[in-house]
Write a structure and sequence with these properties.
It catalyses: alpha-D-xylose = alpha-D-xylulofuranose. The chain has 386 residues and is an alpha/beta fold. It has 15 helices and 10 strands. The radius of gyration is 23 Å and the shape is globular. The structure holds 5-thio-alpha-D-glucopyranose and manganese (II) ion (3 copies).
Length: 386
């Protein structure tokens, strides 16, 4: 049990299992793995697909001939091992040209170059069959608000996304775009810091229906927010286009830990929301093995992410079938307000009836909803004694 198959729709990025263990204080601790080798290994583990930035596959300074050879070999590996590329994205953060932003750079030449690079990357993604295109604006932000660009930056960001959506439609790519929020790191403050910010911004775009969000567990946690709450709001808005599963301690640098490694309860409610809501998208792991690990540790990490998801999916089913938990839930939800339809549908008569109703306010405040017991039952189920 808990062995994944492609039907589980698990994906990893080339940059995740390919992470060589660099951090701001030290260089790589692992040898780079080639893209075709990663494809082969992920397929052996039961993964559905592999996602990429343009430069995870094709170096930024590759010639056209080198690009074509690399892409040809990668496509061969995909077809040999039956792996898909469901999502593509652009590296708009690694090169020094983007050190003060890409779409939100104060330098119009950098903004134009970011558009050019993204169109080329969208061409690559489309060639590989990607249907979702992610925008993580890692360098879109500031340390110095004296730059005076806070309002301009949002306008430039909007213009760029509108441009790229039109490009996708004009090429017939049919991409669904997913904005990935993050509060900080590498910038002091990143624009669109949370899922809520991104959802608000999407409503201001020219083609909002083409845009959704790609929430990441670690990023909402860095902002001190609840990941299940963030994805619930995205699901409610019909905007959960993609998801980055990993883990994170609050108040730390971006850790990108193995899914469920730190906060299994948050991971449980994440899995439960995805499964209960009928989310049909990819279960993408945006995380990497600890810097301490060798290659064996990398595959243990990847297997662990998927096993934990599948274990929690089974726990979610047990939770739904647990009679005591369901009874506690029933008792928690008082279904009848005792006022007929007066509180459910507005009419002048209903409003008048509701205004005239006498509530026992003291009794409402005195009720114990049983949440301590419900939570303890959940914990005991997660701890394996139910
Ligand atoms: C980078 C970042 C991630 C984003 C990736 C997509 S790249 O690793 O930390 O959160 O999802 O650009
Ligand atoms: Mn992260
Ligand atoms: Mn990350
Ligand atoms: Mn991410």
């Amino acid at each position: 049990p808990y062995t994944p198959t492609p039907d589980d729709r698990f994906t990893f990025g080339l940059w995740t299992v390919g992470n060589v263990g660099r951090d701001p204080f030290g260089g790589p601790t692992r040898e780079p793995l080639s893209a075709p080798y990663i494809v082969q290994k992920l397929a052996e583990l039961g993964v559905y697909g592999v996602n990429l930035h343009d430069n995870d596959l094709v170096p930024i300074d590759a010639t056209a001939a080198e690009r074509d050879r690399i892409v040809r070999e990668f496509k061969q590996a995909l077809s040999d091992h039956g792996l898909k590329v469901p999502m593509a994205t652009t590296n708009l953060f690694g090169d020094p040209a983007f050190k003060d932003g890409a779409f939100t750079s104060a330098d119009a030449r950098v903004r134009a170059y970011a558009l050019q690079k993204t169109m080329a990357s969208m061409d690559l993604g489309a060639e590989l069959g990607a249907e979702t295109y992610v925008f993580w604006g890692g360098r879109e932000g500031t340390e110095v608000d004296g730059s005076g660009k806070l309002l301009d930056a949002l306008g430039w960001f909007r213009d760029s996304l509108n441009y790229l959506a039109e490009y996708s439609e004009s090429q017939g790519y049919g991409y669904r775009f997913a904005l990935e929020p993050k509060p900080n790191e590498p910038r002091g403050d990143i624009f669109l810091p949370t899922v809520g910010s991104a959802l608000g911004f999407i409503a201001t775009l020219a083609r909002p229906e083409l845009f959704g969000v790609n929430p990441e567990f670690a990023h909402e946690t860095m902002a001190g927010l609840s990941f299940p709450h963030a994805i619930a709001q995205a699901i409610d808005a019909g905007k959960l286009f993609h998801i980055d599963l990993n883990d994170q301690k609050m108040g730390r640098f971006d850790q990108d830990l193995r899914f469920g490694a730190e906060n299994p309860k948050g991971a449980f409610f994440t899995v439960k929301l995805l499964e209960d809501s009928g989310y049909t998208g990819m279960r993408h792991f945006d995380a990497h093995a600890l810097r301490t690990e060798d290659e064996a540790g990398v595959w243990a990490f990847a297997r662990g992410c998927m096993r934990t998801y599948l274990i929690l999916k089974e726990k979610a089913r047990q939770w739904d079938e647990d009679a005591e938990i369901q009874a506690a839930l029933q008792a928690y939800r008082v279904q009848d307000a005792g006022v007929g339809e007066a509180a459910t549908r507005f009419s002048p008569e209903n409003a008048a009836a509701l205004k005239a109703h006498a509530f026992d306010r003291v009794a409402l405040g005195a009720r114990g909803p049983g949440l301590e017991q419900l939570d303890q039952l959940t914990m005991e189920l997660l701890l394996g004694v139910r």
